[in-house]
Amino acid sequence: MYFSATSAQNPALHCVGAATSANIEGPYAPAANPLVCPLGQGGAIDASGFKDVDGQHFVVYKVDGNALGKGGACNNMVEPIMPTPIMLQKLAADAVTPVGAPVQILDRDFRDGPLVEAPSMARSRDGTYFLFFSSNCWDSTEYDVTWATAPALAGPYTKRGPLYVHGTHGLQSPGGMDIDQDGTHMVFHANFRGSRQLYTTQVSLQGTNVLG
User: Fold this and answer.
1) What is the CATH number of the domain that holds 46?
2) Residue 194: is its pLDDT beyond 90?
């Protein structure tokens, strides 16, 4: 299990941790040290595991650069705009030990507002890698579920989408999605009656497109 927790060194920032259990229902024991903890860049959140077709384990996560932002939407729309890169970290066979340095596979640009976040990976049957993520700010009508594709896991990724935006199927500010390893089942959250609620859906990965 991958999770985010505040840093003892700086409680305003987060690190990504890993925990293991002999049973899926737990109890889980956290590793002694964070999996990733780039406090100088704003910390890290939104970790999601990915197992490639060759059995190799990875985790993707967001460097929480907007935690160091200067204000505005999601604390990152006042210059200088901080990067919020999505990183790919290779893991050992135990799925909790980092192997080598993380690789940046995506970052925000002017279309994404203050950030990109909530990464989740899938691979289609034809070998195309899909990186799902959200852009803009979760409490705005610009928040979305979108994706990028690449011919190789480490990229380069081309931004596509979006898949769901404010108003799609009556949804309000959808985002924060996660896709199952089968590449067809997805969960995400959206506003409903004043709070964030969980939704499920099914999608199909075809070429570089997502049909849902």
Assistant:
1) 2.115.10.20
2) no
Looking at the chain, the whole-number percentage of residues with pLDDT higher than 90 is 98
Residue 79 pLDDT grade (very low, low, confident, very high; cuts 50, 70, 90)? very high
Is the full-model pTM beyond 0.90? yes
Please state, in angstroms and rounded to a whole number, the distance separating the CA atoms of residues 153 and 88: 9
Q: Looking at 32-102, which runs of residues are DSSP E strands?
A: 44-51, 57-63, 86-91
Longest dimension (CA), the chain: 47
Query: Which residue range(s) make up the domain with 89?
Result: 2-211
Over residues 43-72, mean pLDDT: 98
1: amino acid identity, one letter: M
Give how far Cα 11 sits from Cα of 5, 51, 71, 134, Å. Answer: 9, 31, 19, 25
Number of compact structural domains in the chain: 1
d(CA 113, CA 8): 30
Strand order in the sheet with 14-20: 2-6, 14-20, 29-30
Contact between residue 14 and residue 43 where contact means Cβ atoms under 8 Å apart: yes
Residues in the chain: 212
